[in-house]
Amino acid sequence: MMKSDLVIMNEAMKALNAALNPVEVEKFLVLINREKLDYVQWRENLWQGETLESLSEKAQRHFQNKKSGHEK
Fold first, then answer.
1. What are phi and psi of 56, to 5 degrees?
2. Do residues 28 and 37 make contact, with C-beta atoms less than 8 angstroms apart?
3. C-alpha span between 21 and 28 (Å, rounded)
4. Residue 71: what pLDDT?
5. d(CA 59, CA 53)
6. What is 5-67 written as a DSSP string?
7. How would you class 4 by CB atoms within 10 Å of its CB: exposed for 0-12, middle for 13-18, buried for 19 or more?
8. Between 20 and 30 A from 22 (CA), which of 13, 15, 29, 61?
């Protein structure tokens, strides 16, 4: 079953708040609205120049830092 719009928005806000401070969340939301983000183009360019191995290494470092309390 597909999630409702409200559920998706709530989950997205929780993810944003977990990753960014309140000022950054607000800035991100303003940028999304102002820039008329082309999501498809953004996704196509998001991992440009990355390999599966490099992304995996970055993810592992991120979660190790998070686990040890040394998030950047």
1. -65, -45
2. no
3. 11
4. 55
5. 10
6. HHHHHHHHHHHHHHHS-HHHHHHHHHHHHHHT--HHHHHHHHTTT--HHHHHHHHHHHHHHHH
7. exposed
8. 61
More confident residue, 57 or 36: 57
Q: Answer left, alpha or beta for residue 4, where phi above 0 means left and psi between -120 and 50 means alpha.
A: beta
Find the helix packing angle between 22-35 and 5-19, rounded to 10°: 130
pLDDT tens across 36-56, in order?
778 788 888 888 889 999 999
> What is the share, in percent, of the chain residues with pLDDT greater than 70?
96
